[in-house]
Amino acid sequence: MLTVAPPTRLLLGPGPSPVHPRVYQAISQPVVGHLDPYFFQVNEEIRKGLQTCFGTTNEFTMVISGTGSAGMETAVTNFVEPGMKFAVFANGYFADRITEMGRRHGAQIVRLEKPWGESFTGAEAEDFISRHKPQLVAFIQAETSTGCYTPGKGICEAARKVGALTIADTVTSLGGMPVDVDAMGIDIAYSGTQKALGCPPGLAPITVGPRGVEYLRARKAPSVSWYLDLKLLLDYYEQAHRYHHTAPVSMFYALRESLAVIEEEGLPARLERHRKNHEAFVAGMESLGTAMYVAGEHRLWTLNTPRVPDGVNDLAVRKHLIAKYGIEIAGGLGPLAGKVFRIGTMGYGSSAENVSLLVDALRDAFAVAKA
Amino acid sequence: MLTVAPPTRLLLGPGPSPVHPRVYQAISQPVVGHLDPYFFQVNEEIRKGLQTCFGTTNEFTMVISGTGSAGMETAVTNFVEPGMKFAVFANGYFADRITEMGRRHGAQIVRLEKPWGESFTGAEAEDFISRHKPQLVAFIQAETSTGCYTPGKGICEAARKVGALTIADTVTSLGGMPVDVDAMGIDIAYSGTQKALGCPPGLAPITVGPRGVEYLRARKAPSVSWYLDLKLLLDYYEQAHRYHHTAPVSMFYALRESLAVIEEEGLPARLERHRKNHEAFVAGMESLGTAMYVAGEHRLWTLNTPRVPDGVNDLAVRKHLIAKYGIEIAGGLGPLAGKVFRIGTMGYGSSAENVSLLVDALRDAFAVAKA
Questions:
Q1: Is the pLDDT of residue B148 over 80?
Q2: Rounded to whole angstroms, what are the CA distances from B57 to A45, A196, A229, B207, B252?
């Protein structure tokens, strides 16, 4: 008799998202050693699949043995050195998190702040970066706290002019929206497995372009973190297969399978599916008289933030959805607490059926939570 | 059709070890959210199960979302501050690793060095610690590189006399040998899931005693690592359930189930099983004329290091075992490369059948690799 017996949930919050049945099958395949040739084969297949999703030819594309936040910390610990000027485009919770990580690593932080949910124009990026001349720039391509999308081309161009490297948080875009690392000119991008990739949480994909690799090679002092040291990880995964840590093999199986599912669907078709289901959800919200928090052109297709209707209690809605429908959505964070819902239409969960089910459930919940 | 199709291996190396079928079933159960009440229930059950294995009543017992090395780094980043005097009992590869992590965190390191495979007497510990008066002391209770066991009582007593905290690496002892955190007087212990707990790799159990918690509470500057910051993790797991990162839910299911399996067997019976199968393996090696590297009273029951017989090629033996029997064992690291095998009899893999299969396979392999 199994001890673990989770309730059935339809995960339509900001992640984890629903997992494809094949991925569940893959995660329970027999473990092999972390130095087994089969493990390295799986790892190579993962790297290829991730290159497609990231939109990059970067050789240096791999997986960190931790969740999305470990991916963020990997970017910071490898590319921030004490005293370095680090510019953050701050328009949400995860921008604040990378700011905090930068501070802990001794960076001198400068921030361009915008109200949560707003994006940045190319002119704003250019002005800010040319004024401060940072050595490193970070922005959140897909801000999970607000549903705002910032592709990043203007930021990366401005950064390149002053010789700064760019870090992009693509946790909620990878596999569901255009990330386009090479086309945007992003130097370092990291993500998580539990959003639009449709895999359980536990790994952080990361890619580093040639300028980033050059920086790593030239870097004198090692990163404070040994566990997330990209130079050591490179020796393990790509070159001598020198033992570093014991990779979480089962999670690698799961990610490998979810990338196979993506390859079979085709990335363009997958992105288009995310766009269509997002738009259907927005139309559904409009039919309920509920406006979206983020302006049309800046909306993520993966994570939607409809406003909490006037007179409706946010928490009561969420409780009703779980109790009656087994549907998980989330509330707002920080300044958006009580003001928006955070609703995921991503990965395996992005389907016409789920959108229609959810809109109906929200109609019911709004009525109940108003009464 | 599943893309992931691993070969069948009998994992008798230093980990990952064979996984119980129930654990594979558990890992593929439907994911719930990382803020779902069911997740926190699983987490509480894990904490209780870990307290038993660690031999502690520490409230502060939890799981880090990374592998065993992330557990080591958690201990270092939370308890090492720049300039601090950090004493390491160095008798193998993992002692060198924690030394390196300590250096990266700005510690002033002092080391008591012994040849790989030897342990430390209480008098040696007392002399070293009273001479250096460190603020923090680390030792490797179960040295996976050598098969040497250092329970730690003498070290912890000496450390307490000078007011130092102690860190113990219990990666290869937890669930297969007495760890006895409270009885030994260990302040901080971490481990991994893929050894004697019989679970896939991916999580790092950790426990912190009252003196460690007091240190954390009094600590002024935050740890350099945000991802591994125990104060923030405490807020997530134990108190307000304040969102920190998205926990790898599937891995938590796996660990929960492996702890249920341990509870059903009973820890004393489990340790006794490990002892018996280890002794049967040693007897088997003696019947092949092969001596053990570590002296009898210091041998781990989980990880055995028989010497490579004279005239036998280490690599040829390992290749033969994989090719003919699908059995994975490992060679020596560093100064022990080519001199010992590293053979795991741990977790679900510690059985009379596996020992007898392996001894027969080694007899065959020694003959082949000598020819």
A1: yes
A2: 44, 41, 34, 9, 21
Q: Which residues of B touch A44 (CB under 8 A)?
A: none
Span(s) in chain B for CATH 3.90.1150.10: 267-370
Does residue A50 sit in helix, strand or coil? helix
Is B248's CB within 8 Å of A245's CB? no
**Over residues B248-255, mean pLDDT:** 98
Q: Is the pLDDT of residue B242 over 90?
A: no
pLDDT greater than 80 at residue A238: no
- Estimate the crossing angle of helix A37-54 against helix A249-265, to 10 degrees: 40
For residues A317, A319, A324 and A326, what is the CA-based torsion angle, rounded to 10 degrees?
110
Position B340 confidence tier, pLDDT thresholds 50, 70, 90: very high
Q: Please tell me the distance in Å from B173's CA to the nearest CA on chain A.
A: 16
Chain A 220-249, CB below 8 Å of chain B: which residues?
222-227, 243-249
Starting at the earlier edge strand, list the strands of the sheet with B165-169.
Answer: B60-64, B204-208, B188-190, B165-169, B136-140, B85-90, B108-113
Min Cα separation B367/chain A (Å): 24
Measured from the Cβ of residue A232, the count of other Cβ atoms closer than 10 Å reads: 19
ipTM: 0.98
Quote the mean pLDDT of chain B. Answer: 97
**DSSP-derived pairing of the beta strands B148-149 and B142-143:** antiparallel
- Name the residue among A28, A319, A3 with its Cα closest to residue A200: A28
The ranges of chain A annotated as CATH 3.40.640.10 are 21-263
CATH architecture assigned to B267-370: Alpha-Beta Complex (3.90)
Q: pLDDT digits over B277-291, tens only? A: 999 999 999 999 999
* CATH code for the structural domain at A21-263: 3.40.640.10
In this complex, which of A19, A245, A253 lies closest to B67 when CB atoms are compared?
A245
Q: How far apart (Å, rounded) are the C-alpha atoms in residues A154 and A171?
A: 20
Both structure tokens of A219: 């870097």
List the structure tokens of B200.
């896939």
Contact at CB, B16 and A194, closer than 8 angstroms:
no
Contact residues on chain B for A32, CB-CB shorter than 8 A = 6-7, 9, 11, 328
C-beta separation of B251 from A202 below 8 A: yes
Q: Residue B237 pLDDT > 90, yes or no?
A: no
Question: A256: nearest CA in chain B?
Answer: B4
Residue pair A67/A41 in contact by the 8 Å Cβ criterion: no
* Closest chain A residue to the Cα of B39, Cα to Cα: A6
**A186 vs A205: CA distance, rounded Å:** 15
pLDDT digits (tens, 9 = 90+) for A53-92: 999 999 999 999 999 999 999 999 999 999 999 999 999 9
Task: Name which of A315, A308, A276 is nearest A293 in CA terms.
Answer: A308
